[in-house]
Amino acid sequence: MSTQALVALYVAVGILLGGLVYLRTPERGWSRAINAVATVGLWPLWAPFALAPCPLAGTFSARITRALLQARPGSGLPASASVFSQAEAVEILQRVESSERRLADIDALLSARGHAHDAASVEAPRAGPAKSLGEISLSSLVQLKAARVREHSGLEELAELCELLQMQHVLSRGDCSDRAEALRDQLWARAQALSELREID
Amino acid sequence: MSAAPLLHPAELLRAPAQAVRRRCEPAQQAASARRDLLTIALGGLLFGAAVGSFRGGVQVPIAALKIPLATLLTLAVSAPGFAGFAGAFGRRWSFRETLSIALGAGARASLVLLALAPVLWLAIDLGVGHQGVRWLATVAYALAGLSALGLLLHAVGASRGRLATTLSFVGLFLIVGAQSAWLLRPFIGDPHDANVPLFAHGRREGGLVGSLLDFGADERESGSGY
User: Fold this and answer.
1) In B, which residues are within 8 Å of A55 by CB distance?
2) What ipTM was estimated for this complex?
3) Residue of A3, A27, A43, A46 to mutate for B, most B C-beta atoms under 10 A
């Protein structure tokens, strides 16, 4: 095969995949076009990510995205006051994702500090500054564990609320349910509380 | 503005274990890959410009484009092989995970090239000869490769098959990288050439290996080199 034929084949595959990426990218505007153009040139390296099944998210994000998407207009379900707008849904998901990132960071810290603490606890008893450092380390570990519990339970409750909202939305087809409305308000408050947890910490 | 793009190089260089964890997390792979590709392009671009400054003029943008192209070409050709070797030596990585780690290693190497570009540029400016520039570029590539190897070792972990996985990755990358660089040469520009050609003239079939096997025949025929 000549170099020209190889380049033509590469570009043809790139255009095909770029078109697929353009059609499948949910965002609109420049980012969608840039994503497609990048795929044409760099498809062996970029297409596996650009064409990855959605949602590419952690456990809670995936659950919440699924619930929110099914509760949104265009899903075949009736439009009602209990449904979040696009902007609200995006904001909730952003809060969930940053909360999940914090949870992952806490897990990493706990794992690293936990190993260090285990190693230190088997050493000989310490006194003076070393002892006070050990106490600070232990109390930090306890605080980290408490922060993890708060973050995890906040996410768990939010995911459950989203799934409940989805269920209520299905039940209230053609009718605006008060329960769904109350759930919506509660969910919104919980989502905002996720960020407040960080501020308290 | 998010601080994530600015933290990306710092994480790659200073916290390779965390960089690897991020690349193994499906939710973060696309964002990491995007930043890695940009880092490879930017690092290669500036290092290439420094290499091309030996001849100056049009060779600066040409070398600036060729260096990242050689890295991206090498990664694109090697990635399926990496995935195969990873599976063969007991790493349960998905293709995206393998590709993400390879891009991360490439980005780390490109950051080192980016850091060394001013050194090379200064050396050229101080009048270092063609042979000296070749050596400096080779040393820069060796350091960049070692940096990439550091990230790879974190990804491979300590479990069984560590050595085989690492050696197979390095071996494949070196072979494909050498061939890619050979195809795209010249980068610096042969001092004997009045005008540096875009690609080495008089190339023959067989690539780098063919040329090495045929080394004694007629070195001059196989192109301007470098």
Assistant:
1) 27
2) 0.83
3) A46
